[in-house]
Design a protein that fits this description.
147 residues; alpha/beta; 6 helices
C-alpha cells in the first residue's frame, strides 16, 4: 500500500521511526517531510500536502504527526474527502477506520511515544471500513462538505 506521511518540526524523530516501520511492513512511503533537524514548517501546509496526495489517488492512506496531532487533524479535515482522526489509543485508531472510514491518522510526538505510535499505525492500517450501517453515516459526513 502507498502511505503518505508528513510532519512538522515538532515530530521529525517520530515521523522517521514511522517511515522505517512502514517500510519494514512492505508499504511504499511518500514522505512529505520535514527531513532534517532545524527545518521549520507550518503544520497546515504538511496536512495539505498529504491530503492532496490522497485526493489525487497518489496514496491510499495518510499519517500526519505534529506536537499533539490536533492541528494536523483540524487542517487535514478542511480538505474535501479527507477524514482525519487524531488518536492516542489503539482502540480509537482501529475504530476510526472500521466505523468512520478515516483515511488519515494523526497523533502527536509530545503525546505518544515511539512504541505506542507504531501500535497506532498498525491498528489503523490493519483495519478496514465495515460499511453497512456506518456507510450512511459517512455519507452524512461527506454531505457536510457541500455546506
Amino acid at each position: 500500500m502507498i502511505i503518505a506521511l508528513g510532519c512538522d518540526h515538532a515530530a521529525l524523530a517520530l515521523k522517521d521511526a514511522v517511515r522505517e516501520h512502514l517500510s519494514e511492513l512492505g508499504h511504499e512511503v511518500k514522505d512529505f517531510g520535514i527531513y532534517k533537524d532545524g527545518e521549520k514548517c507550518d503544520y497546515p501546509d504538511k496536512a495539505a500536502e498529504v491530503g492532496h496526495a490522497l485526493q489525487k489517488g497518489e496514496a491510499a492512506l495518510g499519517i500526519l504527526i505534529c506536537g499533539t496531532g490536533v492541528g494536523m487533524s483540524i487542517a487535514a479535515n478542511k480538505l474535501r474527502g479527507i477524514r482525519a482522526c487524531c488518536c492516542s489509543d489503539v482502540f480509537s485508531a482501529k475504530m476510526c477506520r472500521l466505523h468512520n472510514n478515516a483515511n488519515i491518522l494523526t497523533f502527536g510526538e509530545r503525546v505518544v511515544g515511539r512504541g505506542l505510535a507504531l501500535e497506532l499505525v498498525d491498528a489503523f492500517l490493519s483495519s478496514e471500513f465495515e460499511g453497512g450501517r456506518h456507510a450512511r453515516r459517512v455519507d452524512l459526513i461527506t454531505a457536510l462538505e457541500e455546506e
